[in-house]
Predict the structure.
Amino acid sequence: MIRMEQVWLSREPLDMRAGPETCLARVIQVFGAAKPHNAYVFLNKRSNRMKILVHDGFGLWLAARRLHQGRFAPPKLWQDKQIELCTEQLNALAIGLPWYQVGGDKSIAIL
């Protein structure tokens, strides 16, 4: 139902009380524009909550995920403000695994 051609992860934390309009404003601030069929992923400061804003070409979808134990693997300080994730990296991030170790060919890139 929702097609995501590109997934972008922001290094900037987001207040999880933010609704769709606030998330859209943050996407425009960080990424410049909300492009159709793109997903934008934000973590909170503790990295135990995630919000994903998806622009499907007609409107916005906002999804939230919370880990009750552990935390999501946040971006490293040396990474850019805008990080493009592949599908495997998004799947790893969503379940709390170190997404930056998963490559496009499902091989571990960093030890």
In short: The mean pLDDT is 86.
